[in-house]
Write a structure and sequence with these properties.
By secondary structure, the chain is mainly beta. The protein has one helix and eleven strands; from the N terminus they run H-E-E-E-E-E-E-E-E-E-E-E. About 10% of the residues lie in helices and about 50% in strands.
Length: about 160
């Protein structure tokens, strides 16, 4: 359980990162594995990720919708990924298990986004790449679609 102080420090970090991002920096990162950025245009967006030991938390917010994905190491090995979206209310939490990603140790994370899409990439030792794609839905589609793709890179040493 998070304490109030931990929540407030996370909010402060997000605010500082968003301000730094607004001042001509594509993404603001801190030494604690936190990254944040924003898009200033119609239908603007905010995206962030936070790395803690054994987990990654990714959050994307557009004007009328949002999505969150959480990568969590399992005690017996492996990684489970939880996701949910928001549009007039949160959807039920769903989860999947990674096939090739044995743990989050040694992973690096980065993201790229604009007013209609966001991609979060996890990479481990040039062997496994995971792309979490967030897409705003077109008319008649769900408001946000999340796709998680995992790839095992072969032919590397």
């Amino acid at each position: 359980m998070l304490t109030r102080r931990e929540v407030l420090s996370g909010v402060a970090a997000a605010s500082i990162a968003a301000i730094a991002s607004a001042r001509d920096s594509a993404m603001a990162q801190g030494g604690d594995g936190f990254g944040c950025g924003e898009v200033k245009e119609p239908g603007s967006a905010l995206a962030s990720f936070h790395k803690q030991p054994g987990s990654y938390d990714i959050f994307v917010k557009w004007v009328d919708s949002a999505a969150e994905v959480f990568y969590k190491e399992l005690p017996g090995g492996g990684v489970e990924v939880f996701s949910k979206t928001f549009h007039k209310g949160w959807t039920p939490l769903t989860s999947v298990f990674m096939k090739f990603l044995p743990s989050l140790d040694g992973t690096t994370g980065s993201f790229d986004f604009d007013s209609k899409a966001a991609d979060f990439f996890l990479k481990i030792e040039d062997r496994v790449v995971v792309n979490t794609a967030f897409r705003k839905g077109a008319s008649g589609e769900p408001p946000i679609q999340i796709t998680i793709q995992e790839a095992l890179i072969t032919g590397t040493t």
